[in-house]
């Protein structure tokens, strides 16, 4: 089985739509180039980054995991729907998997359209749909705590806290409520 470093990027592409999952750092200019069009008067880019705190706790890093084949199909479905709904010239979405250190991007969404209003609306809709529907999970690792918390990659969803291994079977976990 290939290691994360060997599985650099998996993607789907159709006219006007590009979606990908990667273990590599995200490249904003490259994604922007995927949606460029001489017919576009606006390109909007959203970059979601790992911040250094969450709910008053210091964040060490986030780690993302996915069921890649299904996640890519879901991302493409979202992209196609938004492309048609907002009459876009192009839409591209890429999500990083594996560890994402503080200050680095975990998701990029780029959209191009003839006018800025449609681009703004489409970019926000793309982000919200990705967070609500795409099969990506994140593990939050906090400073001063052992283990981490796995959550669906969306707001307000319960997470499962990982307990450190104690050598005594079991392992259980406790649920936490995400506050956003």
Automatic annotation (TrEMBL):
E.C. no: 2.8.1.12
Biological pathway: Cofactor biosynthesis; molybdopterin biosynthesis
InterPro entries listed in its UniProt record: MoaE_sf, MOCS2B_euk, Mopterin_biosynth_MoaE
Record CDD domains: MoaE (cd00756)
Enzymatic reactions: 2 [molybdopterin-synthase sulfur-carrier protein]-C-terminal-Gly-aminoethanethioate + cyclic pyranopterin phosphate + H2O = molybdopterin + 2 [molybdopterin-synthase sulfur-carrier protein]-C-terminal Gly-Gly + 2 H(+)
Disordered: region residues: 150-180
Coiled coil location: none
Keywords per UniProt: Cytoplasm, Molybdenum cofactor biosynthesis, Transferase
UniProt binding sites for substrate: 115-116, 131, 138-140
Cellular component GO terms, alphabetical: molybdopterin synthase complex
Main location: cytoplasm
Top-level lineage group: Eukaryota
BP GO terms, sorted: Mo-molybdopterin cofactor biosynthetic process
Subcellular location: Cytoplasm
A Gene Ontology molecular function term of the record: molybdopterin synthase activity
Entries under HAMAP family matching the protein: MOC2B (MF_03052)
Family the entry assigns: Belongs to the MoaE family. MOCS2B subfamily.
Assembly with partners or alone: Heterotetramer; composed of 2 small (MOCS2A) and 2 large (MOCS2B) subunits.
Function per UniProt: Catalytic subunit of the molybdopterin synthase complex, a complex that catalyzes the conversion of precursor Z into molybdopterin. Acts by mediating the incorporation of 2 sulfur atoms from thiocarboxylated MOCS2A into precursor Z to generate a dithiolene group.
Protein name as annotated: Molybdopterin synthase catalytic subunit
